[in-house]
Amino acid sequence: MTAVTEAHPGAAHGAGPRGWGHLRSPGFVRALWMTPLFGAIGLGLVLFFRWLGHYDPLWKWETITTVAFLTMMPLGFLAGIGSFDYWASYAIGRPTPEHEDHSSHGAKSWRDYFRVNTDHKVIGVQYVVTTFFFFVIGGLMAMLMRAELAQPGTQYLNPQAFNDVVSAHAGLMIFLFIIPSFAGLANFVVPLMLGAPDMAFPRLNALSYWLLPIAGVTFLAGFFAPGGFGCGWTNYPPCSTSAPWGNIFFSMGVQWAGASSIMTALNFLVTIITMRAPGMTFWRMPLLVWANFTTSMLVVVATPFIAGSQFFVMFDRVMHTHFFDPSHGGYVLGYQHIFWFYSHPAVYIMMLPGFGIMSEVIAVNARKPVFGYRLMALSLLAILVLGFSVWAHHMFVAGMAPWLRVPMMVTSMIIAVPTGIKIFSWLATMWAGRIRLTTSFLFACGFISMFVLGGLSGIYLASVPIDIQASDTYFIVAHIHYVLFGGSVFTIFAGIYFWFPKMTGRMYDERLGRLHFWLTFIGFNATFFPMHLIGLDGMPRRVADYAPRFADFNLFISLASFLLGASTLVFFYNMIKSWRSGPPAPANPWRALTLEWLVSSPPPIFNFDAIPQVVGGPYEYGVPGARHAVLESETMHAVEPEEVEKSE
Amino acid sequence: MTRRSVLQLIVIGAVAGALATVVALALPWLPHVASKEGERIDFVFWFVTWICIAVFAIVAAVLGTALLSFRVPLDDDQDGPPIHGHTKLEIWWTAIPAVLVTAISIVSAVVLAENGKATANPIRVNVYAQQFAWTFQYPGYKNVSLPNLYLEKGRSVELTLRSRDVIHSFWVPQFRQKQDLLPDQDTKLIITPTLTGEFPVICTELCGLGHAVMRTRAIVMTPDGFASYMTKATKPQKLSGLAIFAAQGCGSCHTLSAAKSSGVTGPDLDYLAAYAKRAGKPLDAFVRESILAPGAYIEPGCANTMPPNFKELIQPKQLDALVAYLVKNGTKTTAHKGCG
Predict the structure, then answer these.
(1) pLDDT per residue over B176-189, tens digit each?
(2) CA distance from start to end of chain B
(3) pTM to 2 decimals?
């Protein structure tokens, strides 16, 4: 089981391209000329048709940017690095040998992480590292905002820059950190947990990943366009349709991130439905797999709606349609309905995978079966269904049909029930267990306590009368950070610590991990808890300036937020140092039962030498002699003379 | 379950509950309530708060006890008892939260319905929002338009709200009432003030660069005070440039010493003469053009972000007065950085 990063025997990497060959073979060099080429084609198309139609002005930068820079150039980049090579060769009838041998599978050196790679484990690592890169950028934006808000008045950011930073912070954290980092962790873990050699569609998986940096660069490039995008991540029209054209950078960034999400979700669904190992019935799947199954269903149904909403905004801007233009019969509130029909389920897209991680971490570290396993899975499905019926609780003060308020309040309240079931079941799982306080378990406890607070403030917001006072204030800022930071991000940290040994083959430093947890936990609460108060007391959100009476609170919050920001330095130090020189990880450092721990750390290139046989539930801790799965190779190993010698 | 852990459970739960109660009671969570609707909303707020404190205490007790009682060293290699579930317990923790949220829903729905009812003979006010100013028009008082919301203690006001450009949101924290303003349909809000005094009117929907400073005041008066104020306000008045400057919200984005405004989003209007010189136009014509067609000349360092709809919002006579006022006060000619 030491075939850690060894390539598949059939892999014919060869010496690779030389000299001018780089220009033709997939990679960054080819992307370097294909990206501008595609951009030039887009530019030519726009100019040609504008010239043909006698449109004035010929050089309309908004249209040119949309077509040439934000659509064609990304496609050129994807073509250049080789995302489409297999499909293109196949489509035009050329032989595709270099791909049939899985040479694009697995990683032999760090360079392979910068290539189009079809190995789900490589893609998982690519995802996680990329998303943490954007986490840092989004976090630095938050630090900028807090620096500006430390005192009333305008100090570092003018209102324009502030609105841009507010919008970009949210856009990056949601679309390029939380959602894809869950996709990344699941990418690595889910096929292993299922006993599958890879995802169902490895090339699609690679394409999904490479859309992400495009989305991120698009968001960041928006800062250099006129006006940036300063209408918040919600991008409500008419603000978004009347803002300077930097706004299309948001609309198009969402398209790339959304496309990535949808493709990954489809991939997960097909993988989970069709590639489970023999004996892995649905009721024997680990809850992480259940969580990603439900999340993927949410994504494929809901994400097209935000894509639609952003297309409509972009059409209104570029093509002069009037979806949201009231002077031509457009319907302003229509946007909010479409947007939230995605963006409320998006909250669960950002939460359910975390629920899955929690079930793994808590059961393994408390050494007990997950309490009420079936109800845990069913409550995920309940949240999935209910999640589609609560969107208008974001619009209680928006001016929608008044009759819609009470039904949406009731559904929003009811969704607390399945969520409560999950919390109580985790607590019951811990109860009477033998709890080992690893870093991942600490983050799990942090998650439960913070998510309960976020859930309780959610009850306030679900109640229409209280929401009328709290809506669009710092209370909302506090609530979403308790849910998305105290909730989602804590689970991401727990998941990273939990699977770090499996992903890298190294152990991390527990002491630094605990330090990271406590700094984050304290910094987080000191930053976000006071926001509840100033919000209810009269401070609206998304403001660059505020009434002087909130000055003391804001200074305190800003100082705390810098502590919170600094706490991630401990995390990165620990991760980077342990990855380079941490002690080698055993196959199963946590003595977990699920399949990913039955193979070496990191796993061999095709995960399992032989297809495993699942023989029981995934959490049978404390049951004498219970197994979740049996590997064929174990029986083979038993007769190998070497092994016998060692054991003697 | 040992007796020790049960005791721990109770103690931790009591401590957590007490702490949460102290936090709830000792901190001023809500500003002083100044409307009937607000009083009802506060009732719901505290109703929810007590339930939440109980839930928090239970969770804290179980989590705390689990961590204290059941923790073992990292290298411990034993397992816990193989408990897979407990159907009765699971039914209870499904049913009790369901009952609690149903109760909260009922209380909320009743309060919401009550808050939709005005007292007899309400004042009607049309509220208009634009980037970045508020206008309050009183149809019952000769359609007079005022930059502040004047109200009468004890008498409901029925607001009909409409935006003139993007979405804004009307909020008075002391009234606990908030409502978005849309450009394509009217929205309604009812407020029954119970205290006299001045309260901030705050825009809470991100509406552009001047969002943070889109503020005005709600002024609640005694019935007598309100009546006499409205009599005065409805008398025909001389057009005042300063009043138009304030009513159109110019000061949200522009500094002008004469109007005591300090906005920094747009150019400092004290230096209008300098800008006119740079644009190569006579001051009077330059100021007029900059209001009607803001994009015609952009001061270096500034962005073309001024709303272009002032030509529809300001009547010709008002425009004359405003231009005259700006020409009179924007006389500095020294070189000046326009924005920032």
Answers:
(1) 999 999 999 999 99
(2) 65
(3) 0.91
